[in-house]
From TrEMBL:
Residues 1-20 form the signal peptide. It comes from the Bacteria. It is found in: Cell outer membrane. SUPFAM superfamilies: Porins. This is Outer membrane protein beta-barrel domain-containing protein. One of its GO terms (cellular component) is cell outer membrane. It comes from Flavipsychrobacter stenotrophus. Keywords: Cell outer membrane, Membrane, Signal. The keyword Flavoprotein does not apply.
């Protein structure tokens, strides 16, 4: 009888677990010794009525799994003999909830009974994702997401709002996994409130295909996802900031977010003539074409490698952001909508953006290489406006089939008027010239992108099929005029006289049009060979067709000037297939594979026919990756990838660009594709009890047949540059850093070190030239934050830059010392004062001997009103010492240049800032409760 009753109870329990729709997973660990706690007891309790929902025991590896019949709020309690009980409040809202490490502390290490707040579990490392619990990092009232990010170890936010996480620039910020305003990080970080954020997740976002199959394809984007607290997903919240200042400065911005369950509706608007423009659209590649040339540029004292557009079209270069050059006026706004329904089977999201920006620039640039020196004064006015829209529709047709459609499009117009007064000197021949020129341009462009992805999972685990079809269209057109007057001279050392040459006049009408149509289709099939080994087979076809018409007509003439004109078609057809193997173990994931491809070039010179040709290339693309989870909070990632880069139509068409008569660029129809080999290593580690955080990484790449330049300098100091292929180029950089919370204080101290190097091959006046560039930067970061009292942050840094070339005596090196001190203090009656000082000391060089040291001092005083200080009046004083100079220094191979320009300088501003929050009940959201550890 007892056996019968036991069987009945067992069947009932089994039935109950069979009906469970939600799973909670975790790992019970002795955090001091980093050991799993076998047979530890874990209970899941319903928060509403304190009824036990389920119970489990940890296995030999510490893993435990609990079941829940419905979503909602629960309490997790973990117990083990000799250890303090662990209690945490969780919310179950999806089929699988990952708790990560459940930290347990032995009673002998507890000197007294205490409450362990979320700081203990402030950071979790799950594979290649680092997750920060937002409430563990205290921010002041009405702080923004940007203020929160500045407090997270391993994340830096510069004065321009650019975010660097674990040494890499963040390109995407998501909110609850949703694309937000076309990936404009500043809109999110400056508009959303920090108190609305539950978790901040930092990871390398893989392609949809890689996320689906689990096999890495090398496409990664450094991404931050902000998980909002449940209470902020009901009602609305937002921010309004209205400001007026001296000298006609104004700054007005507003953002509102209305969330209801899975539905998101947000809107923002900005009108400003300060640098608080909240732009940063990263879709320049959707309008322009070209990888351009690799440069090394000084950015905030740190040398970084970037790639610039190579076209002569001002329109292509405007990405909607303000770099600090000139005086801007900006009007921009956007709408965001996202929703899920039908049990999350259907998902839609959309963004619309508009921006209009006027910029006035007055500047002086000085450029020097082995054989020439150029000076150019620029006066420029530009006016641009743009519309952008993107949308996503995802349909889970059934439990195994998903259809996903991404679309985006945009329109842009740019009008530019530029006036230059310039001079060029050939330092070897004691000759040179002077130049005056005017350029007008009116540009239009549009783009449309679509991506349709069908994914299917079969009954056998690991067997999948996916088909991805993409289309990309871009069109640009521009018309304008170039008027140029250049007069040469030569110094005769025999007679000690200057001999002038006649003035050369150019007066041309420019009509340009470029179109790009790309289509690709890829099918990928995965098959499990065992429980741990998976095979991927893929095949793809890509068609990339480009046309570029650049016509120059001498005014008063009917016939085009063939020397400065081109009409060219460049069509590329690629067929590619490959195999990849992935090996999955508990702590190690290894993948390796190889693709082979055949690429056809069809080049048609419509204007002259002289440069038409057909070519064919065969390529092998190896790849490998390893992810090793060293410990619960420690991970190591190693990745290798080989890939090609095709020359752009700007680089390959036989066009002679003369928009800048001192720097004439010529295309090369014989260019071959580049092949790049890249290795990336990353490491992350976090110690829970001490709060110690360390990270590091190395990236190194070599390029065969790199697209470089061959430059000739004539007697007037004019540089004529043509694109050529070279071997031996490489570049590498490393990043490492860490920090620790100082025991028994509210202070945190961290450090970072970032070295980089590159080698660039080119040709100068017929000689093979080799340029080596090196940069080293080191920085410290100290911050202390006592909630409700004060904040202080000190961040000194030093950067050293060196460049040397084998041709001539070109060698330059200089250091940049910089530091930032900021702080705020809470006064009685809800008053607050704050200040920040940024110091930049630039070492002089033998080429540039002027003093460009700068001290930027800002300060404010604020007063908060209403409940919870939702309304604030703030009086700001910007650039109190009036030392903000527009300045940057670039090194490009064997060329160094320095650019100074007008920019925003000293002003005062009064701002009224209103942060508002409304929940369905009309009350403020409740604060998160602490995590409890009991003796």
């Amino acid at each position: 009888m007892n056996r019968f009753i036991a069987i009945i109870l067992l069947l009932l329990c089994s039935a109950g677990y069979t009906n469970a729709q939600y799973i909670v997973k975790g790992n019970v660990t002795d955090t001091l010794n980093n050991m799993p706690l076998y047979m530890s007891s874990v209970v899941l309790i319903r928060a509403a009525d304190s009824v036990i929902e389920s119970h489990g025991r940890a296995g030999y590896d510490g893993n435990v799994q609990l079941n829940a019949t419905k979503p909602g709020k629960y309490i997790v309690k973990a117990m083990y003999h000799g250890f303090a009980d662990y209690v945490d409040a969780i919310t179950i809202s999806k089929p699988i909830t990952e708790l990560g490490t459940i930290p347990m502390v032995s009673k002998e290490n507890l000197l007294k009974e205490f409450v362990l707040t979320r700081q203990t579990a402030a950071i979790k490392i799950k594979g290649d994702t680092t997750e920060y619990v937002a409430d563990s990092f205290k921010t002041k009232e009405n702080a923004t997401v940007e203020d929160l990010l500045k407090k997270l170890p391993g994340i830096q936010v510069d004065k321009n709002g650019q975010i660097v996480a674990q040494g890499e620039t963040v390109a995407k910020i998501l909110v609850d996994g949703e694309e937000f305003f076309s990936d404009d990080p500043k809109v999110v970080t400056k508009g959303l409130q920090a108190k609305a954020v539950d978790k901040v997740q930092v990871f390398d976002k893989k392609s949809d295909q890689a996320e689906f199959t689990g096999i890495d394809d090398g496409q990664k984007t450094k991404t931050i996802n902000l998980e909002l607290k449940e209470e902020y997903k009901k009602g609305y919240f937002g921010k309004v900031d209205a400001g007026g200042g001296t000298d006609g400065y104004f700054q007005n911005q507003a953002m509102i977010n209305a969330f209801k369950s899975k539905r998101q509706v947000s809107a923002f608007a900005i009108a400003s003539n300060t640098d608080k423009v909240g732009l940063g659209w990263r879709d320049n590649d959707k309008f322009s074409s070209g990888n351009g040339t690799t440069e090394i540029t000084e950015d905030g004292g740190i040398m970084t490698t970037y790639t610039s557009g190579s076209g002569d079209d001002d329109f292509a270069g405007w990405d909607g952001s303000y770099s600090g050059e000139g005086l801007p006026k900006t009007w921009t706004g956007g709408l965001h909508y996202a929703d899920k329904w039908n049990d999350n089977k259907e998902h839609v999201s959309a963004n619309y953006r508009y921006a209009m920006q006027n910029v006035e620039i007055n500047g002086l640039s000085i450029t020097k290489n082995n054989f020439s020196e150029q000076r150019s004064n620029k006066n420029q006015f530009s006016k641009g406006d743009r519309h952008g829209v993107d949308g996503l529709f995802e349909w889970k047709i059934d439990t195994s089939t998903t259809l996903k459609l991404n679309v985006s499009g945009g329109l842009k117009n740019m009008k530019t008027l530029s006036e230059y007064t310039a001079s060029g000197v050939n330092t070897e021949l004691n000759s040179g010239s002077t130049n005056r020129r005017n350029i007008t341009s009116n540009s239009d462009g549009q783009f449309f992108n679509a991506d349709l992805l069908l994914r299917k999972k079969f009954a056998k685990k690991g067997r999948t099929l996916s088909v991805d079809v993409k289309e990309n269209q871009k069109q640009t057109s521009s018309n304008g005029n170039l008027t140029s007057y250049i007069s040469g001279y030569r110094f005769d050392t025999t007679t000690n006289t200057t001999i002038n040459s006649p003035i050369d006049t150019t007066n041309q009408k420019k009509d340009n049009a470029t179109s790009i149509l790309a289509f690709s289709a890829k099918a990928t099939y995965t098959e499990p060979l065992s429980k741990t080994v998976f095979l991927e087979v893929n095949y793809s076809t890509t068609i990339d067709n480009s046309t570029s018409k650049n016509l120059s007509t001498d005014n008063g003439e009917q016939q085009i000037n063939s020397l400065y004109s081109s009409n060219y078609k460049f069509n590329i057809l690629t067929n590619r297939g490959g195999l990849n193997l992935k090996y999955n173990l508990k702590k190690i994931n290894i993948s390796a594979g190889c693709d082979v491809a055949n690429t056809d070039y069809n080049q048609e010179d419509i204007l002259s026919g002289a440069n038409s040709r057909k070519r064919n290339f065969n390529n092998i693309f190896p790849s490998a990756s390893l992810t090793y989870k060293v410990g619960r909070q420690t991970s190591l990632n190693i990745y290798y990838h080989g890939n090609t880069t095709q020359p752009t139509i700007t680089q390959i068409q036989p066009l002679r660009q003369n928009t800048d008569p001192y720097n004439i660029t010529i295309g090369n129809s014989n260019l071959k594709q580049e092949f790049n080999n890249t290795v990336n290593i990353r490491f992350n580690d976090y110690k829970v009890l001490t709060g110690r955080y360390t990270y590091g990484g190395i990236t190194f790449s070599t390029t065969n047949d790199a697209i470089s330049t061959a430059q000739i300098t004539n007697g007037n100091g004019v540089n004529t540059t043509q694109y050529v292929n070279v071997d031996g180029n490489y570049n590498g950089y490393a990043y490492m850093g860490g920090g620790i919370k100082i025991p028994k204080t509210v202070a945190y101290i961290g450090a970072n070190f970032n070295p980089s190097l590159s080698r660039i091959h080119n040709f100068t006046n017929g000689q093979a030239n080799l340029s080596d560039n090196t940069s080293l930067s080191f920085g410290l970061d100290f911050n202390a934050d006592k909630e409700g009292k004060y904040e202080i942050r000190v961040s000194p840094s030093i950067a050293y830059n060196e460049s040397k070339s084998t041709v001539g005596d070109f060698y330059t090196h200089y250091a940049i010392y910089s530091g930032s001190v900021s702080g705020s203090y809470q006064l009685p009656k809800k008053f607050e004062i704050g200040t920040n000082v940024d110091v930049t000391i630039r070492e002089k060089t033998k080429v540039f001997t002027t003093n460009n040291n700068v001290v930027i001092w800002n300060a404010y005083v604020g007063k908060k009103f209403l409940k919870n200080g939702q309304l604030e009046a703030r009086l700001n004083a910007l650039d109190i010492l009036n030392q903000n100079i527009g300045f940057n220094r670039n090194i490009d191979g064997n060329t160094i240049s320095q650019n100074s320009y007008n920019t925003i300088r000293r002003y005062g501003m009064l701002n009224l800032i209103w942060n508002f929050t409304h929940t369905p009940t009309g009350s403020q959201p409740a604060a998160q409760g602490p995590m409890m550890i009991k003796r």
